């Protein structure tokens, strides 16, 4: 994939990530408040948005939970990394499986009451999964583009 496509992918991921911190931008221009219901509804399609799991700062809340924020910021980090080093064509599934297992272990430990929910741990496990998952996403896009370009 060309550098311009990787740059476009990084920009789109950055816009997506800024979007779920949109509420924090409202003090810069109160007219932005009109977009908040639309964005809240949009992000509710991909995240449960439970209040206790949202990232909060100065009274403002993210539009996704800590784990989802970690996943998407991990994808953004992976996309930025791809600008400097193209992801391996055939990443090992074991790495992805380990990241999923770590995240599921955190979810299970919290669910059975081993420890209280930690936004930081949720963010880190999400980030780990997102950053590894980017190479799979990237390679899937390459295969999709090749299907469209391949002569019939």
H-E string: HHEEHHH
Specify the helix fraction band: 55-70%
Q: N-to-C terminal Cα separation, in Å?
A: 21 Å
Structural class of the helices, strands and pairings?
mainly alpha
Provide the low-confidence segments as ranges: none
Strands of the biggest beta sheet: in what spatial order? 1-2
Number of domains: 1
Mean pLDDT across the residues is 91
Shape: globular
Give the biggest beta sheet.
2 strands, antiparallel
What is the strand tally? 2
Count of helix runs: 5
> What value does the Rg take, in angstroms?
17 Å
What order do the helices and strands come in, and which of them pair?
Elements: H1 3-19, H2 36-44, E1 54-57, E2 60-65, H3 66-82, H4 93-111, H5 119-149
Helix pairs in contact: 1-3, 3-5, 4-5
Features:
152 residues; mainly alpha; 5 helices; 61% helix; globular
Explained architecture:
By secondary structure, the protein is mostly helical. It has one domain (3-149). The chain has helices spanning 3-19, 36-44, 66-82, 93-111, 119-149, and strands at 54-57, 60-65. Strands 1-2 form a two-stranded antiparallel sheet. Helix 1 (3-19) runs antiparallel to helix 3 (66-82). The longest helix is centred in the last third of the chain and has 31 residues, at 119-149. The protein is globular and about 50 Å long. The two termini are 21 Å apart. The mean pLDDT is 91.
């Amino acid at each position: 994939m060309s550098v311009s496509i990787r740059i476009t992918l990084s920009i789109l991921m950055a816009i997506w990530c800024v979007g779920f911190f949109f509420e924090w931008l409202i003090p810069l221009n109160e007219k932005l408040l009109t977009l908040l219901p639309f964005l809240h509804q949009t992000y509710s399609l991909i995240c449960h948005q439970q209040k206790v799991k949202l990232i909060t700062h100065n009274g403002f809340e993210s539009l996704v939970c800590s784990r989802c924020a970690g996943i998407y910021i991990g994808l953004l980090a992976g996309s930025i990394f791809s600008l400097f080093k193209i992801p391996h064509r055939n990443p090992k599934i074991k790495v992805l499986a380990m990241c999923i297992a770590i995240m599921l272990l955190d979810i299970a430990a919290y669910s059975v009451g081993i420890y209280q929910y930690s936004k930081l741990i949720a963010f880190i496990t999400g980030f780990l999964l997102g950053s590894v998952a980017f190479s799979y996403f990237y390679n899937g896009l390459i295969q999709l583009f090749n299907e469209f370009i391949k002569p019939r």
